[in-house]
Amino acid sequence: MLVMPIEAAKQLASPGRVISGFKLEDISLLASIRIPQGEGGVETNLYMRPDDSMENKYSHLFSFKLCTYVNDCWTENCRGRIHILYQPDEPDPVNGDRLEREDLADSLYSFSKAPDGCGSTVYSDVIYDHMARCGFEYGKTFRQIHALAVGGKGEREVIGDVNNVKVSMQDTIHPTTLDGIIQTMVWSIIQGGTRTVPTSVPTYIASMRVAANCSKCKALKTHTVTETSETGTLLTSIRAFDRDLREVMVSIEGLKFTAITSKAPTESTSPVKDNLCHRFECKPDINLLSNDELHTVCRGAYPDLAIPKDFLIELDFLVMVRITETLQVISQRDIEP
Description:
By secondary structure, this protein is α+β, with helices and mostly antiparallel strands. Helix content is 26%, strand content 31%. It contains six helices and eleven strands. Strands 2-3-4-1-8-11-10-9-7-6-5 form an eleven-stranded antiparallel β-sheet, with helices on both faces. A hairpin with a 5-residue loop joins strand 6 (145-151) and strand 7. The longest helix has 24 residues, at 309-332. The chain is elongated, with a radius of gyration of 32 Å.
């Protein structure tokens, strides 16, 4: 679904300008595309609406919405925004490409530190066999992960190798390649195959950037980190580099998954028998009691409550200090009774 707006945006780009990449934002994945068996396929409709208010000399912005026609009705599958990023005609005299270089340096530094905490490497067959136990069924075409290693931050940091499928040189990124990159998130939440989790699907991506020359790479090196936000939501960030680690080809921020199945409970689910007899205990509502009645109830609940002598002495001292301070203030202001 996310490859379609990228390819559509290429057709709407300004003629004569060189595209450096695409940035997708605020992506809501609402429903999967159900392709029926056979050669009929499924009818789709992609809306691309330009947003001139956010346009500048470095990018064009479009809002997009993808719908499919199934069972005589249209279903909205995803929506979001996409920027067409252009190479500048002239270098920025102030910053140049400093921000891009700093972002690449930070990403490479995190990637270089990841192997220190990641354990042994597992390969495609083991990875997809365990994913299948959690309900993630991938066909042969979508099994693009070659190897993964997990460790680091709470066993939720993953480094790996993903095949970069190339059908046509004109394609920016193949759908199965992008799906393989996102699949690395699953390996981070199952902590390298040591856990079984409910089946989940991606439902939201805050930001995703794809380089225009991504198709030139034969394979991608990925770095995936899943962390828990302040609200308890699992958020995943993914970086996919070229094999020589010279450029970030795909970056994903704020990837959210939503469970569509519940994990089977391990404890016994036998029903609890209710008691045959019940005892009602009447207790007064303190909001309806007078002061004397409230005093009687409290004394009845704590009949042997004794106030320590030291506490009373300190309380008397505190009261005297407050009275003295008040009298001093009154005398300074010449207040007459």
